[in-house]
Design goal:
mainly alpha; 4 helices
Length: 89
Amino acid sequence: MKTTALSIKIDPKVKREAQKIANELGFSLSAIVNASLKNLTRSKTISYSLLEPTPFLKRAIKSARTDRTRKKSVEPFSRVSDLMKSLRS
C-alpha cells in the first residue's frame, strides 16, 4: 500500500492523550487517523462516540490481547453454558 505523510497542527496535550488511549486500545495513532479518514471518504460523514468502555470491557479486551499474543486459541462453543464457563475462567 502506498502511503503519504500528513502534517497537522494539534495541541500537544491532546496528542499525548490520544496516543496513550490509542496504545491502550492496541492501535497506533496513525492507524486511528487512517481509519477515521477512510470512514470519512466512504460515508461522507463524521461521527464520534463519547462512550467510554466499562472497566469490565477494558479487562476483557486486555485479556483477549494477552491470549492472542500468547497464541492461546479459543475453540467454538456448541452450548452457551460452555461459553459462559470459559468466559468466567
